[in-house]
Design brief:
TIM Barrel, 8 strands, 18% strand, alpha/beta, Aldolase_TIM, 9 helices, ThiamineP_synth_sf
Length: 212
């Protein structure tokens, strides 16, 4: 297995007023480990405001050679347009429906990620829709955490059988080693793990090195 990499998840409901504190934390976290991507989970707003927010965030992430992937649960507008005009590297959606349409619209090598799966069948549907990665785990928009054992089981199953890469998300530091042990190509870190403590990213990197 190739060396696993990290993905950082921002808090749900990130708004423009949060960026002054968030962007320095992202840069510090990206500098502390091998971060492949940052999933920016935005609060719904109008497309113009979201695009402006993404334009601010993208350089901070991409300067560290990480991809910025935009998510916005509950947003009824055009997320692909927001990501493209804002200079992001892709979008992340938590519903398999409509993936094929999104795949067709994401040009220039932009990333399509998806997650929120509670069953193997739903994950397979997403894989068939053309997603570039599947994410198992991660906090729900209401702040609730999924069952970590179920997350590990689904991530290990996917990583063993399918070629499409996956992210196994750790919500606590104690879950990092188990997430790495699934064989997932990426281990996701919820914001509580890195937002106030960039050193946690370095510790996570050590856990990945031990699991590889």
């Amino acid at each position: 297995m190739s060396q696993q990499r990290l993905a950082l998840l921002t808090p749900h409901g990130t708004a423009a007023s949060d960026l002054d504190g968030l962007l320095p934390a992202i840069e510090a976290a990206c500098a502390a480990g091998d971060v492949a991507a940052v999933i920016l989970r935005l609060a719904p707003a109008d497309e113009r405001a979201l695009t402006a927010l993404v334009k601010r965030a993208a350089p901070a992430v991409q300067a560290h050679e990480a991809a910025l992937v935009v998510a916005c649960p509950g947003f009824a507008g055009d997320l692909v347009s927001v990501a493209t005009r804002g200079g992001a590297d892709g979008v992340h959606v938590d519903k398999p429906a409509g993936l094929k349409d999104l795949r067709e619209r994401l040009r220039e090598g932009r990333i399509l990620g998806t997650g929120g799966f509670e069953t193997r069948h739903a994950a397979m549907d997403a894989g068939e829709g053309g997603a570039d990665y599947l994410m198992f785990g991660g906090l729900y928009p209401d702040g609730a955490a999924p069952d970590p054992e179920g997350v590990r089981e689904r991530a290990a199953w996917w990583a063993e059988i399918f070629e499409t890469p996956c992210i196994a998300v750790a919500c606590t530091e104690a879950e990092i080693a188990d997430a790495a042990a699934t064989g997932a190509e990426f281990v996701g870190l919820e914001s509580a793990l890195w937002l106030a403590d960039p050193a946690a990213v370095a510790r996570a990197q050590e856990a990945l090195g031990g699991a590889a």
